[in-house]
UniProtKB/TrEMBL annotation:
Belongs to the peptidase C48 family. Residues 80-241 form the Ubiquitin-like protease family profile domain. Keywords: Coiled coil, Hydrolase, Protease. GO terms for biological process: proteolysis. This is Ubiquitin-like protease family profile domain-containing protein. InterPro entries: Papain-like_cys_pep_sf, Peptidase_C48_C. The keyword Lyase does not apply. It comes from the Eukaryota.
Length: 303
């Protein structure tokens, strides 16, 4: 019986691999317009997620207490350290989130862009690289400027931790516009405006263009009704932007100022947890593969 179950499991896994390969081939052949029309809503994705799988519980059952994971959304080799404290904040569902959680979320959305063929439209600014309370302004400005110049995109999403509050800005360089999201309806502070405007000005100068100061547009959007959910509001806004491929008219789309329902927040938590577990498994498999390769090389050396 056990042998039959193993054979059946192997057949299912092989079938899934073939299906994924067929989907990738279809994506590469279809025009970009089809991807925009086929964007799944949050409700569709929720239905697609296996209801029997509670990824948050799986995280709580992990034996390891710390993880170092590679970040795909950065071209330079960059990893994020996630420990048990970070994980407990997310699994509790009622605590403020760390920058590590948002960093991995950027990588999740980066992969989402690739799967939807949106990767030429959206770029991501890592929250650990734009910490205004720990990094010099010129360092942050240089990082953003180089990102805009080195990885040309239509829009760049920057989850920003500012005075223990998560906010989101979206830079659209060619339009010379910065959209500002805050779930407490706070305007950007002067030091933040100086950094972002300086980065955008430097980007234009590198391209031989002289422009006026960027146009700032404050987006009301959903407003939080507690003191800890700001990180989830940023994550949800980022997800909705990518999911619906929003690259303009943010102020016309994000008009609902009500608080998010618990189900919406829980959906984001489950998505993050699912991706985290996937990333851990990927990295463990890669480490095993690297170890086997090293052992083969050593074996050849001694033969």
């Amino acid at each position: 019986m056990q042998k039959e179950m193993q054979e059946e499991r192997a057949q299912i896994q092989q079938g899934m691999k073939l299906l994924q390969q067929m989907q990738l081939e279809l994506r590469s052949e279809r025009p970009k317009e089809m991807f925009i029309k086929e964007v799944m809503t949050t409700e569709d994705l929720t239905k697609k997620m296996d209801a029997s799988e509670d990824y948050l519980k799986k995280i709580n059952n992990l034996k390891e207490n710390s993880f170092s994971l590679d970040l795909d959304h950065e071209t330079s080799e960059l990893s994020v350290f996630i420990d048990r404290v970070d994980l407990n904040e997310l699994t509790s569902g009622i605590k403020w989130l760390s920058t590590s959680i948002l960093s991995l979320w950027c990588t999740y959305l980066h992969r989402m862009c690739i799967s939807k063929n949106f990767n030429k439209l959206f770029g991501f600014l890592d929250p650990n690289r734009i910490l205004v309370h720990t990094k010099p302004a010129e360092v942050i400005q240089t990082y953003i400027q180089n990102k805009l110049d080195g990885e040309p995109k239509k829009c760049y999403l920057g989850p920003l931790l500012n005075s223990n509050h998560w906010q989101l800005f979206v830079i659209c360089p060619e339009d010379n516009i910065i959209f500002w999201f805050c779930s407490l309806n706070r305007s950007p502070k002067k030091n933040i405006k100086v950094i972002l405007e300086g980065a955008l000005e430097g980007y234009h100068l590198l391209r031989g263009i002289k422009k006026k100061k960027p146009n700032w547009k404050n987006i009301m959007g959903h407003q939080q009704d507690n003191g800890w959910a700001c990180g989830y509001y940023v994550m949800k806004n980022m997800f909705d932007i990518i999911d619906a491929c929003i690259v303009e008219r943010f102020n016309e789309i994000f008009t609902d100022t009500s608080s998010y329902e618990k189900e919406s927040i829980d959906h984001i938590r489950q998505l993050w947890a699912q991706f985290f577990l996937q990333k851990v498994e990927e990295q463990e498999n890669q480490e095993k593969k690297d170890l086997m390769t090293k052992q083969k090389r050593l074996k050849k050396t001694y033969i």
